[in-house]
Amino acid sequence: MNRVFIKTYGCQMNERDSEQVASSLRDRGYSVVDNEFDADVVLLNTCSVRDQAEQKAIGKAGYLSKRKRENPNFVLGVMGCMAQNRGEELIDRLPDLDLLVGTQKFHRVPDHLDHLIRSANGQGPRPSTLVDLDEEADSQNTIRDHIGKKNQVSAFVSIMQGCNMNCAFCIVPKTRGSERSRPIEHIIEEVEELAANGVKEITFLGQIVTSYGRREFPVVDGKSPFVQLLEKTNDVPGIERIRFTSPHPRGFKQDLVEAYRDLPKLCEYVHLPLQAGCDKTLRAMNRPYTKNRYSEIVNSLRAVVPDMYFSTDIIVGFPGETEEDFSESAAFFADIGFDMAYIFKYSIRTGTPAEVMPDQVPQEEKERRNQVLLEILSRGSLQRNERLIGTTQEVLVEGPAKRGDAYTGKTRGFRNAIFEADERLVGQLVELKIDRVTASSLYGELVLAGVDTF
Ligand code: 5AD
């Protein structure tokens, strides 16, 4: 009765939350398995950012609840954003749910499972769905333990929870609550422990990392708490690369630009959500910047790091986005020359301001706009990769590729690289001479001088 499978939908924050739950369950004597069929307990960690993500998880939960009919001791739980967003209404859709846990209650999962399993064993009354969705002060300070995967090269570190922005399209302020930041010293301790376990790359996570600590901690020497955190992380021995996701253009100030100039471990890659490249749409979205301001940030970064790589989130078919608005947005998107982008078709989220906006865009039109941006992206990305042919790039070796006997890793610019290697190189920084590229990957041979383990 103690084998748990956790299925994660959505963003890196959700992945990190699932790791946290897995770690706390292991500490409690559960075993975390990687296959739902071997599990006595299945927990779905869900996403609400688009309707499709919610539908997928609901479908999966419906399918799994059939298992409960064959095996009444099987435990099924839904955690995270959809639990928070839909609350007890979900139980009407999924009456067989045993557990519903919100985004500020992940650390309570072991207690809840203990309780459910005790009662399933006849040691207590069989409860109806156990629901734990409240807000919890200081829940940001409950996130810490890592699973300590063998050979873990790269780790996500959550630095804050919640979001205080009010983007008209977005459900996240509802699912994740208001902003709360962890103290710098706690985060640095966690980074030091990860480094001691061999982790080389840290990715800081937060809904809006540029807002990190802005109410809790002071600005020092003109540097925001977030930049102070980056500086301290840059000083941690063993950490070779620092990344973060996601900043907001509004909080992207000169101190952060200069961090790219001054901190050698901060990788020359930024994921900076644009959402729309048209001022009218940005205003309607309640995104407090203009495309000019966005360009200024991009230019100031390119001025300090000419090889900077840019990634973004952009939405097509926001209510009221006309053909003209979209063309403007697409032209701006092409102008910036993104190396990577997540392109989203607008999805109505109940309870957000955009839900009731007039002039919703038809689905086929969203599809078309999506294709237009995908083509721009794939052209730009290929051109960028082609410029890398013949160069040597530093790659952090992650592990075996999904297919074949090659290995994969990432360059500092977050390009995916595929190459012949050896198990002993996993977790190491190697030099890769690029000889062939596609829009999504770089191929080449390792330059092995100075690497002594191969
Ligand atoms: N529809 C489509 N995409 C959305 N996103 C957030 N809300 C919606 C929505 N209602 C996208 C944004 C955000 C990313 C995580 O998801 O681009 O940056």
State the CATH topology of the largest domain. pyruvate-formate lyase- activating enzyme
Number of domains: 3
Oligomer classification = single chain
Rg for CA atoms: 23 Å
Number of strands: 19
The CATH architecture category of the largest domain equals Alpha-Beta Horseshoe
- CATH superfamily (homologous) name of the largest domain: tm_1862 like domain
Task: Note the main attributes of this structure.
single chain; alpha/beta; Rossmann fold; OB fold (Dihydrolipoamide Acetyltransferase, E2P); 6-stranded parallel beta sheet; 5-stranded mixed β-barrel; binds 5'-deoxyadenosine
Sequence-ordered SSE layout with sheet pairings:
Blueprint: E1 3-8, H1 12-27, E2 31-32, E3 41-46, H2 51-70, E4 75-80, H3 81-86, H4 89-93, E5 99-101, H5 109-120, E6 130-132, E7 154-158, E8 160-161, H6 172-176, E9 180-181, H7 184-196, E10 201-205, H8 225-234, E11 241-245, H9 254-262, E12 269-271, H10 279-284, H11 291-304, E13 309-316, H12 323-336, E14 340-345, H13 363-386, E15 392-400, E16 407-411, E17 416-419, E18 429-437, E19 441-447
Parallel strand pairs: 1-2, 1-3, 3-4, 4-5, 5-6, 7-10, 10-11, 12-13, 13-14, 17-19
Antiparallel strand pairs: 8-9, 15-16, 15-18, 16-17, 18-19
5'-deoxyadenosine binds at residues 49-50, 169-170, 273, 275, 313, 315, 344, 346-347, 349.
